[in-house]
Amino acid sequence: MIRPALTEILLFVTPFVAYALFLYATRAGVLNPEKWNWRVLASLTAVAILFMIGGFAMLRQHHSHPAGSNYVPPHVKDGKVIPGQFK
After folding, report:
1. What are 13-32's pLDDT values in tens digits?
2. Which candidate, 13, 1, 7, 9, places its Cα nearest to that of 47?
3. 3-class SS at 48?
4. What percent of the chain has pLDDT above 70?
5. How many folded domains does the chain comprise?
6. What is the extent of the structural domain holding 18?
7. Can you tell me whether residue 54 is helix, strand or coil?
């Protein structure tokens, strides 16, 4: 459960970090409040939300199971651990 949460947090933070790196590379002053005005923050937030929606969609596609499938928990069979799976 922690991996999907960290993935979404990373996707949200990515545009802000990219903009900070851009400001650093252009020597425009990362800590200059004029460079972080409300329009820039609003656009970065919109992009971050779009990234998160895309991330949720990707997680949904890769972690879905067929309808009517049953979960079989991990068990030991003939001395080997059989991982949990959906059947």
Report:
1. 999 999 999 989 988 888 88
2. 13
3. helix
4. 97
5. 1
6. 2-86
7. helix
